[in-house]
Amino acid sequence: MYIPTTYPGLSIGKARELLQQTDKLIKSVPEVLTVFGKIGRAETATDPAPLTMIETFIQLKPMDQWREGMTKKKIISELDALVKLPGLTNAWVEPIKTRIDMLATGIKTPVGIKIAGPELSEIEKIGKDIENILKNMPGTASVYSERVAGGRYIKIDIQREKAARYGLNIADVQKVVASAIGGMNVTQTVEGLERYPVNVRYPQDYRDSPEQLSLLTIITPSGQTISLADVARVTIEDGPPGIKSENARLNGWSLIDIENVDVGSYVEAAQKIIQNELDLPAGYSISWSGQYEYMQRAKQKLKFVVPLTLGIIVLLLFMNFRNLIEVAIIMGTLPLAMVGGIWLMYLQGFNFSIAVGVGFIALAGVAVEIGVIMLVYLNQAYNKMLDDARKSGTRPQLETLKQAVLHGAGMRVRPVMMTSLSIILGLMPILYGTGTGSEVMSRIAAPMVGGMISALLLTLLIVPATYYLWKSRAINYY
Questions:
Q1: 47 falls in which pLDDT band (50, 70, 90)?
Q2: What per-residue confidence (pLDDT) applies to 364?
Q3: pLDDT on residue 45
Q4: Which helix (H) or strand (E) holds 184?
């Protein structure tokens, strides 16, 4: 979805022209199947989009019809270079994810800054400063700060004394203005089961400029014909295009689209630059929002969930083995498994996200399962060795322990291989899938696939070796 932002004061005619131009430019890219653009808001309270906000839905052709070597990232780069119009700040986003972000935080771009304070004019000035500071920062695709005080309004200031001379009061003049400019429903037409209102107002040529509005005809109670300028002043004045508030404070937003960088790294670098270069007046504050806000919430939850998960695993292992050393050996498989998961994420070009965190949590359970499978059979082989030594009346030897560990580990190669390969092969279609939702699912699968590869190789080698070193100390005490 293409969601550019324009400056306030945009006319309906120019908005329509911009929408048509951007649609034609986007459609010229060979990979684009359909383009559907909308500007302004529908007649519904759930879509409070201003006239300055364009929303264009872009449907791409199937991937087998793309030019050779083309990816979605390359298509977006080509579109961004193609659609360059004065006054438009581009943003290329995913439709569903952006809708969720806008409902939760109000920000339609990956990163947003909310400026709060008492005066809209000062908020706008701070926003412009942020825009200038961040526009040349590496990783910034586009940045736009809302002109919260940059709207244009036609003000009709009724002169009471002049109106009184013609026998008119305020309501009489306002009624003429409301009906002639805004329109008035006079009746409705019935078309079968459908009803349509009939709205009457002056033609557009009579109301397309302040000068023309000043010439609007008013009929006085005495039948005299006068113009609106005889009883009112028609002027254009500045004002806020829309007023936002959060926590009982006026707000202005800066919308930032990023490229070739993850949200966390970008915000961390941007915070340092703004802290050093932005002079924030007393009584004003800024807060970071958008996907970064989600990430911060998720980090707080992960700080609780991850230790809780590991604690439950340790508790269950201890209840089963009743030995902290055995629990430590099994938990040692977790860092071994994480090595493969991190390497596969690096090779795939994935950044850490909530989906990746979920994948690592799932990996922890499966990796521990492999360690348990191995340790149970190593214990069985060790106990059998002790029983044989006790029956024969001989002292256990290190060589006998080595053979027992090799036998126990060898017996578990097939089950460990089957467990690991079934997970790896089962997740491969998810990891390399390209369907709907594949971006999230591939990031859940990547830690598990990479982790199971390293866990498979390292568990078969390191867990038996660690077990041998531990038990060899016990053999020396015999």
A1: low
A2: 84
A3: 67
A4: strand 184-191
Q: How many CB atoms lie within 10 A of CB 447?
A: 29
The CA distance from 49 to 99, in Å, is 12
**E strands along 277-434, which residues?**
285-290
On whether the CB atoms of residues 147 and 238 are closer than 8 A, the answer is no
Statement: the pTM of the whole predicted model exceeds 0.90:
no
- Is residue 221 very low, low, confident or very high in pLDDT (cuts 50, 70, 90)? confident
CA atoms of 469 and 457, how far apart (whole Å): 19
**Cβ atoms 213, 228 nearer than 8 A:** yes
Q: Do the beta carbons of residue 15 and residue 40 sit within 8 Å?
A: yes
| Token output for 29 | 């890219």
Selection from 32, 34, 28, 27 nearest residue 65 by Cα: 32
Provide the pLDDT confidence category of residue 476 given band limits of 50, 70 and 90: low
Give 196 or 238, the one with higher predicted confidence: 196
Q: Whole-angstrom Cα distance, residue 185 to residue 12?
A: 22
Distances (CA, A) of 247 to 178, 243, 260, 290, 299: 35, 13, 34, 17, 24
- Pair type for strands 232-239 and 225-227: unpaired
Note the residue count of the chain.
478
∠ at Cα 306 (351, 291), nearest 5°?
Answer: 40
What is the four-CA torsion angle of 445, 447, 453, 458, rounded to 10 degrees?
-150
pLDDT of 478: 53
Between 321 and 118, residue with greater pLDDT: 118
CB 231 within 8 A of CB 113: no
CA distances from 135 to 125, 129, 139, 254, 474 (A): 16, 10, 9, 11, 66
**DSSP letter string over 38-83?**
EES--SSTT----TTBEEEEEEEPPGGGSPTT--HHHHHHHHHHH-
Residue 146 carries which side chain, given as an amino acid letter? E
How far from 173 is each of 104, 220, 227, CA to CA, in Å?
Answer: 43, 10, 11
